[in-house]
Amino acid sequence: MAIYRLPEQLDQLSDEQSSERHSVVKTELDALDEVISYAEERRRSASAFQRRGYEELYRHGFGKTVVIDTEYSGRQVLRTSLATCDYASTKLGYATPDSPIGRLCRQAQIGLKSESNQWGRYTIVEIRNFARFSGIEAAQNIKNFQVMESTSIADKGKQGLQTVINNLKLSLQRWYRPKHQQAVVTDVALSPLLENIPADGIEQESENWLDFATGQDYELFQDDAEEQLNHYDIYGRSDDDRDDYIGLSSYFFLNPTEEQLRVMTGATTTGPMLVEGVAGSGKTCVALGRAKTLCDLARTPDEEQFNADFLDESSVGFVRTGELVNYLKASCQSLSIDKLPIEEYRSLVYRLNNVRQLEQRSTSTGAEGQKVTRARYTNVSENLSYDFSAETTMNWLHASAQAIGALLQLELEKQLASLSIPAELLKAHFLAETKAGNALLELVKRSLASDYASLFNQLSGHSGDAFALDNLLSRLVNAYERIERDLFDKNTLWVHPSEEEWLIVKEAKAAVTTLREMSVVLVVVERVRDENDRIRRKATEILIETYTDLLNIFAQNGSVRSEDGLSVYVAEDAEIIWECRTDLKLVCDIPPVVNSIKITWAKDFDAVNIHLINQKLFGINKKRIFSLSESNPFVRKIEVGEEKTQTSLAARLRSQMQRIYSSWQYADLYRDALLSFPQYWQDYSHVSQASERLKAKLLADHDKDILLALAQIITRGAQSSRLAPRLQEQPCYPSVFIDEVQDFTEVQVFLMAQQADPKYHAVTLVGDMHQQLGRGNVRDLDACFPYHSLTKFLLKENKRQEREPQLAATSMLFRALVQNDSRLQESAGQLTLWREQAQNGTNKKFINQPFDNIDAELVDLISEQPHGRTIAVICPDLALARELEERVRNDLIQKSSRTPRVAEHIDLAQKYQVHFSCAENVKGLEFDTMIYVGLEKIDWANPQELNKVYVTISRPRKRLIMFGNQYDLPDTVATCLLTYSECRSA
């Protein structure tokens, strides 16, 4: 279907089509006026929570209109936007993007037929997409559209039509009417905006049009000072300024495929998600669309969906190279998630390196008194001489965790065995008894041993945890905090019934019952004045509540007699005493503790408990008298040393327990494990190089990746304030997205993914394994997610080159035939169609010239490119790019207005430059013209080099030019890269 640019090509439309398009333009501008006016008022008066949504609505208005013919409800005109706020309009058919109507609009396809209960059978008969003004023109065109692109199907005798209109308000001024008026019935006349306007209202509109008495059927209305229309596409890019577009348009967000929409609207419960796709499939946009969907949860008016965690400034996106940062920031801005931070992976490493103290920097004072920091571990200054790619895998990370686990198990066992009470503390009165201190120490050891048992099972790799070191610090801290709660709580009461035994009084009645079972005699101790008028403690009575209490007197070698001394009772008389207890007044002796102390018969436990509450209840056991409500012996103040420094048993034991992990340094642990347990890496031939490097206290970049990943594993869940910052779990982001994931190592992917809050596991990965350029990069993405399974999506449509079928078919055919990706073939005739499209057209050219002979022709080609096009010259490697740029620099400057530049980091906004680079530096970017030179230097048997070719040929939007020796191309490659005429000449 031909595309008509209006109003310039109105002479190619019928009178009816011209009138109908004019009405559509006016209707959409009226609808935009109503939306913007409402948003402008609400962004001033709404609450702070609502204001951001209305700011977004004010900026974007609406971006898509869908016209639907229904069986029951006639013609429906629906609109949506990427703005999320509480605005909706039945009159305009406007709905937010994640509402049912919004989703219907977003995935609408022209001609789609379906059925619903409300509408019956329905057909989508027209789709209109809009682009808003940006930059300096945005403010004065806030109620105007820069572009409207519409497609309608043939319907009710009318032909289908595809049109593009720029600057809708200015276009209306330039519109003209047909010479002969005809009654026109359109979807606009039935639209919600105009359905209540009488028929003569429509006729009155046509009477306002201007008519010129000329010999032509049509004529444009022109002001004296005519303003020229600049042509823009639906992405907001002008013909003269295409390279200013360095991000992704909201058009993608509002026009996803069904698969793309599934990804973008994935729930927070989906967990980690891989969006894999062919080059140009919009996978990055889809990932950002999911990021926007999640961020919108923090500002949605829907209480059921609202989630304050997902603020865009609280999420993060990671990229591998700096050139993608600006690209993605521009994309985020277009989607109104401009506060979403985008950072290079190495900036994450730098930040975590400082927190984790990988280099173990110490501070000292220099000769002049200034503070100087010195790193114990330093960076490797030269490239490593061996293939270390195995050290970047998840298998290596698991082996490292197991070896360090074995190392730490030995350390913890030694700690448990060496835990002791310092000799200076044993001088304290309550610890002076031979076995009292050992009894307290045994309580601590027994508690630790119980927790360490399961911990040792994990450290030895037998627990089923993802890693041997999982949650290690959290579990250690929990064990120590359990001791703090159970043993070191200053508010607990204790009893010390014997030298070798200490008991906690958790509940009075239970404690008394326990003491009874130990044959303890209950005695009341009062504070009384002695003959010297001093306050002293004195045992005043023995309490007997139960028959066991009576038996315990005899068990403690006590004797019982009547108060008058006439009757003496022995253990065999216990039953008689108990039966007659209310009539007997007795006293007892328990030498050497008490003599001639009266026995009191307690009616119930309350009579005993009152003395316990008043801290007067004591016990007699093994010739010792002790309190039944002692303060915690672990936290009692103890004075030590000549300066009488105050400390406690708990403080000293706590220090010993914490010493084991407070001294941990990640690099030291890794080094010691490599040196002490090399058997865990027995499958790796280069383990000795790694151990020697760490032994020399040198760290390569991939060593830091491993150390940070190990730190992440060890500190999972470790949030105690008692831990040093390097040992604490680091703050998480509610959502994380990772672009070009195939260019990271497995350990790097794991580390980035672990920055996501485990509550949601909202990680979105974007990538394509067929665009993987480096050796040693990720092979097994599933292994990078040991805590949650990875959901995968494959996007097969090349959206970047969809308007240039020859370029799209070339890259798709190369991927299918040369890279052997069988997943792309949806039908038997797919390859045949791609061959046909790839070999016919003028968007692709192969020039049979080797790298050494291309200078003059290359300069001429660059000089011929239209002004404003982005141009990249790609070589097999960066060294060749530097050589070529140096060869053509002077000629290129003289013959064109462009400046050549060898680029490792490409800035697409520098439109005057020709970027000389290699495939590694154009990943994720796109150019109008791509010139690929030196194809004769490609090793077609090398998978990495095939991937580089695929990356390069999938970058151009308009033109692909290649230099090489076409006679050396493998047959399958020639089929993809050569046109039909070039194949014949070859």
Share of helical residues: 25-40%
Discrete helix count = 29
| DSSP strand count | 37
Helix/strand/pairing category: alpha/beta
Largest sheet: 8 strands, mixed
Distance between the termini: 35 Å
Please state the overall shape, judged from the principal axes of the Cα atoms. Answer: elongated
Q: Residue-averaged pLDDT, rounded?
A: 87
InterPro entries: DNA_helicase_UvrD/REP, P-loop_NTPase
GO biological process, one term: recombinational repair
Protein name: DNA 3'-5' helicase II
GO molecular function: 3'-5' DNA helicase activity; ATP binding; DNA binding
Q: What can you tell me about this protein's structure?
A:
This protein has 986 residues and is α/β, with parallel strands linked by helices. It has five domains: 205 residues, no CATH class; 194 residues, P-loop containing nucleotide triphosphate hydrolases (Rossmann fold, 3-Layer(aba) Sandwich); 113 residues; 137 residues, no CATH class; 181 residues, Rossmann fold (3-Layer(aba) Sandwich), CATH 3.40.50.300. It has 29 helices and 37 strands. Strands 1, 2, 3, 4, 5, 6, 7 and 8 form an eight-stranded mixed beta sheet that branches. An eight-stranded mixed beta sheet has the order 20-19-21-22-18-17-23-24. A six-stranded parallel beta sheet has the order 11-10-29-30-9-31, sandwiched between helices. A hairpin with a 5-residue loop joins strand 12 and strand 13. Helix 11 runs antiparallel to helix 12, helix 11 packs across helix 19 and helix 23 packs across helix 24. 41% of the residues are buried. About 6% of the residues have low confidence. GO terms for molecular function: 3'-5' DNA helicase activity; ATP binding; DNA binding. This is DNA 3'-5' helicase II. It comes from Enterobacter roggenkampii.
